[in-house]
Amino acid sequence: MKRISFAEFGGPEVLQLVEAEEPHAGPGRIRIAVRAAGVNPVDWRIREGQVLGAHPVELPAGVGLDAAGVVDEVGEGVEGVEVGDRVFGEGTDTYAEFAVLSAWARMPEGLAFEEAAGYPSVVETALRIIREVGVRPGQTLLVSGASGGVGSAVLQIARARGITVIGTAGAANQDYLRGLGALATTYDEGWVERVRHLGRVDAALDLAGSGVLRELVELTGDPRKVISIADLGAPQLGVRFSGVAGSVPDALAEAVDLISRGRLHIPVEKSYPLTEAAAAHTDSRAGHTRGRRVLIV
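== NADP-dependent oxidoreductase ==
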């Protein structure tokens, strides 16, 4: 079996395509023949050796949390899924020809593997941070770095719940944010004043880690009304860093419902063959993503 692995922490050049033993589905798990794997910022953060307590690493290590594919092994005690089912979900070492999933759901009708692979961690994160920041219907949520996968999900889920959203992103993604129902502005000089002109901010999310936490606290008036998923220094400012997943099965069930009802769509900006995992990490780390990046296996 081919998989992407790294034997030392470092830049994207440490990623190698290697031959590895096939994993197998233990109790409560399933194995899939991977068709596509989601590329998430947490993937390259782990590869760089950033301290992420929720994702301890033992080298050499595989890469990837999200995948979509076809079930080919069902572990002991698993019910409601059969060999041959098309599923998407979260597991370990998903940049590979086979991967074991710990949480999964059947793919909605009409959804391609390439699209499905980009949803699991993204939707779980979006649902979690909307809940943790405590924003309610009728209030306004500011989303910094709103055009990526998590931002795209947050904007759509928040709008569906009656929450006004203000999104910041690069100039090229302004129309994209507006298409998702957000009030949009760029994050260059003067962005704080432009946000103020758009309205009162009740809560804010930092999705890009671009050094804007002080401004988000200023806009909300309270560090407890700000959540970051990208700035490990957030607690120094009294801001909560959210990095531990909640219930992935519940998030997948809500994703299936939203996608099936046409209330959630996250585009795939670019797909890469497995052999170009390093390029996918380079592009993901550069930011300015519109939607998701995935690997095709």
